[in-house]
Design goal:
Helices cover 12% and strands 27% of the residues. It has five helices and 25 strands.
Length: 414
């Protein structure tokens, strides 16, 4: 299998030739492939008869080996996966680019399944309780003998049970539930621990990975963020791991009230800006740590308030507009899940006084691609949202680190 990051992009299927047999002796040790085949047959026979104490005669069973005189029985098939935004395989093509499989999944409840003679009460019951089949096969068209095992969310589906294996647990796409409790359920106490992506698989996905936690260094007495195989505080406590579970990814923005934009409203330090230092601990492993320039205050502090210093949670959500759409953006909430974000020092919201000491619609997003983060007319790049300088393709790097995670920890300090 071949990967681009954590995404499987291709599979090469062996055909069982001699070159596919793991033999400790290379072909150079033999005069030809026929002799090697005979040697392999003898080794297999000795393993069964002497090691396993079984008198079974494998002569007929492995006669095919003796007849092989070339390295392979045929060419190797190669297939390429073309996933959707969730990583689910949608199209499979062969090595020549021809489509050999087409897949679609049921991701939404649809009124199209309700016959018109149903009562409103019955339709409501079915809609809210029954038709939540996220990831169930809907369309599976093939014109080849091979069928891709990596389907919904790019995970392998067991052909015997129909369950998808996500690494830590199995998922039943027919019922849209995990077969065991989600180890990250502590982070979403408002949802059932058996629900897939809080019943919102259109904008969220559940990748297999490890998470980050915070612990005090006994020597320096400083708090440090470290990588862990545990996926919740409960798992850490059960394993007697000291520290505070944070999330699948962590964003730390070390700023100040003296942050400011540079020449022409640019967030780059070489343009005269005084940016915040943003450190992101990504979801791709213990070495996935990168730093960027950022802004924790608004584009115009005299016009817009700033988010209070403190700890928050984030999850992927398309904010729309010029900073959403094709670009990933992340909704900011309090640790309890509220989208009512406090202002720094309890200040009455400058722009929207009726909101009191709170701000709404706060996202973590990018600046313009050239680093511009100013105000044009009545539109500001940041009306209080924390942002990262997207110059030099930095935001693409951020997107790779955070992906479409539903469990990101945000810390803002000033």
């Amino acid at each position: 299998h071949y990967y681009a990051g954590s995404e499987r992009i291709s599979s090469a299927i062996g055909l069982g030739g001699l070159a596919n047999i793991n033999d400790p002796l290379s072909i150079e040790k033999y005069e030809n492939w026929k002799i090697k085949a005979g040697s392999l047959k003898d080794e297999m026979s000795r393993t069964i008869n002497e090691c396993l104490k079984n008198e079974y005669d494998i002569k007929n069973s492995f006669e095919f080996l003796h007849g092989m005189e070339e390295a392979a029985a045929g060419t190797m098939d190669r297939y390429f996966y073309h996933p959707d935004h969730l990583g689910s395989s949608s199209w499979i093509t062969d090595g020549k680019g021809y489509a050999i499989q087409h897949l679609h999944y049921l991701l939404l409840k649809s009124f199209a399944f309700f016959p018109p003679w149903r009562s409103v009460k019955k339709i409501y019951f079915l809609y809210t309780h029954c038709l939540r089949r996220f990831g169930e096969d809907w369309v599976d068209q093939r014109n080849a003998y091979w069928s891709a095992p990596y389907t919904f969310s790019g995970k392998e589906k067991d052909v015997e049970t129909g369950y998808s294996y996500f690494g830590a647990r199995y998922y039943d796409s027919g019922l849209s539930i995990w077969l065991s409790v989600d180890p990250m359920s502590d982070n979403t106490p408002f949802a059932t621990p058996y629900a897939y992506c809080i019943n919102n698989p259109i904008i969220l996905h559940d990748p297999d990975g490890r998470d980050w936690y915070e612990v005090e260094n006994p020597e320096t007495k400083q708090m440090e963020i470290k990588w862990t195989e545990h996926k919740s505080q409960k798992e850490m406590d059960a394993a007697k791991v000291k520290g505070n579970y944070l999330g699948e990814a962590v964003v730390v923005m070390n700023g100040s009230k003296d942050e400011k934009l540079g020449k022409g409203g640019n967030l780059s330090a070489d343009k005269g800006a005084n940016p915040a230092l943003v450190t992101i601990y990504g979801k791709n492993g213990k070495n996935d740590i990168k730093m960027y320039e950022g802004l924790t205050v608004s584009s115009d502090p005299s016009e817009y308030s700033m988010v209070a210093s403190g700890d928050y949670k984030m999850y992927y959500e398309d904010m729309g507009g010029p900073y959403g759409g094709v670009n990933l953006s992340y909704r900011v909430t309090t640790l309890s899940g509220s989208t009512e974000i406090p202002t720094e020092g309890g200040e009455i919201n400058k722009k929207y006084k009726k909101q009191g000491a709170f701000m709404y619609g706060i996202y973590f997003h990018k600046t313009n691609n050239d680093g511009w983060a100013g105000v044009k007319g009545n539109v500001a790049v940041s009306s209080g949202c924390p942002v990262v300088n997207a110059r030099n393709s930095n935001w693409k790097s951020v997107e790779k680190q955070l992906g479409k995670s539903s469990n990101i920890y945000l810390r803002i300090t000033r």
